[in-house]
Fold this sequence. Notes:
The structure holds two protein chains of two kinds. Chain A is mainly beta. Chain A has one domain. Helix content of chain A is 0%, strand content 30%. Chain A has no helices and nine strands. Chain B is α/β, with parallel strands linked by helices. Chain B folds into three domains: 3-216, 3-Layer(aba) Sandwich (Rossmann fold), CATH 3.40.50; 289-396, Luciferase, domain 3; 398-498, GMP Synthetase, Chain A, domain 3 (2-Layer Sandwich). A seven-stranded mixed beta sheet of chain B has the order 10-9-11-12-13-14-15, sandwiched between helices. A four-stranded parallel beta sheet of chain B has the order 4-3-5-6, with helices on both faces. Chain B has a four-stranded antiparallel beta sheet with strand order 16-17-18-19. Chain B starts with a helix and ends with a helix. Classes of the chains: A mainly beta, B alpha/beta. At the A-B interface, strand 6 of A face helix 1, helix 7, helix 8, strand 13 and strand 14 of B.
Amino acid sequence: MDLKPGSRLKSSVCDTELIVVKAPSGDVDITCGGAPMADPADAERNGEVAAGSADGTALGKRYVNEDESLEVLCTKPGDGSLALGDTALSLKEAKPLPASD
Amino acid sequence: MNLMMLLEMASSGFGDRTAVGSQGRGLTYEQLFQRAGATAMRFREAGVDRVSMVDVSSEALPIALFGSAWAGVPFVPLNYRLTVPELRHLAAEVAPSVTVCNDDALAAIGDLDGVRAVVRPDFLAQWAEGSAPDSDWNVDPEEIAILLYTSGTTGAPKAAVLRHRHLVSYIIGSVEFMGAAEDEATLVSVPPYHVASMAAILSSVYAGRRIVQLPNFYPADWVNLVRAEGVTHAMVVPTMLARIVDHLEDIGGGLPSLRALSYGGGKMPAPVIARALDVLPEANFVNAYGLTETSSTVAVLGPEEHREAHRSDDPAVRARLGSAGRPLPAIEVDIRDEEGNPVATGTSGEIWVRGEQVSGEYLGRNSRVTPDGWFPTNDGGSLDADGYLYVEGRIDDIIVRGGENISPGEIEDVLLSHPSVADAAAVGVPDEQWGEAVAAVVVAAKGQTVDIADLQEFVKSQMRSSRTPDCIELRDELPYNETGKLLRRILREELAESR
């Protein structure tokens, strides 16, 4: 599916919800728990988290692909883990800054 | 992308934490979320284009801010210290609006067409009561979240446009979700219409740091509130810090709960920061540089960098205490000349910035951002070899004396380094021979007398003679606006007249 910054995505196999922070243009094959993700308005719970894709997502964490052209933020945690095509997304390291405002 | 997403995450993950007010007695994230939702439905029913606020900080501020985001209308905090004609002018520009206000503002603007003025107690009792609806918010990142009228120290105020994408990018790029410990609290003492106030609400909600609000800044109240509420974090503008340090030196006792003190919003005189380090030895100091048009902070000098600079024998490292630190990871900074071409490292020019949080856009005007995303800030500055940013002030304030560009900051730094001087300003005044002459105004330090001739000699010993002020005047205080910006325009006019 085509993704834009601000797009919301929902897992079809667990509670995970995401917001897209950054996305490459064109078709993006993002999955959660081994199943395609969808717009929350269209997402229906359908099936189980696949074995091997069950590391879970954590609230407030950001996930990226290898070249960081795709970045998503977890707004609701769930049991499935995220992948782009066959490659798992990885947790983006936080670089906490000193509070400034 | 919507500001509400930040609050929804805090509420769903940490709903019982106190978001605003005293520990255990203020609004929790869950309550703030519910009130924002209830308010949003009433904003929608009112059918207005904007939600505005003309009041000091209170819990109504985050409720109205998030309620506006949920309802899909821009939030416009206005300066409650404006004169009645100024306020009427802006309120009419912002209409049709719901305006949450104090009694004075109600009297000033309540009769305007399209302004539905609601005093704060009524807003809290009638608009903010109830629970959140199922209805969702708009997720279009291009929607306008906040309109902020810039302080207009140089001309008529204009409204900077901050879209949801700018602010959300800023927060998720610079704040770790729920990164604050549960005992942390931040004291917000800048007024609602200052970008730092808006940014403080958003970053504190996302960090899970309790917000404590000081409606009107008085140094004794600020110190008392830090002590009473166990405040761990605070942001102040330079004029506030100077008065806090004065007060703490008088009463003693320090502020043991305060772990982090950030300052920004204007040039901080080096003597003030040195005194602050002495009276608050436990606090971590953070210097932040940013603009309304950049969704707040774009560069920070962190606590470790403060200490390293303070300890160092290397003059280049020591000088960093006067820098704004390094750009945030998501921000690029360039220094460019008048034609927009990059200048060499260490050379002064205009500060240009680029990043997702940078708006650079004003309502009803052409954007100042270049097609490739660079925003010229109109601030002068330079970058050193290690990437530290030195801010020299507004380019409009540069004094041009006989063809030579002189940054007022350089002269002010020298004046401030004299022990008899507490505050100083240098401006250009019209001069037949030089085009502009350098005029300076100083304020004596507590218990000191300023000898003008002696001070002239002192400056001459430190700077080129062309940069030595042609005249120095002594005053009781300098003209600042209420958010600590020096009103150079007023000084220029007064000094030009008195010559």
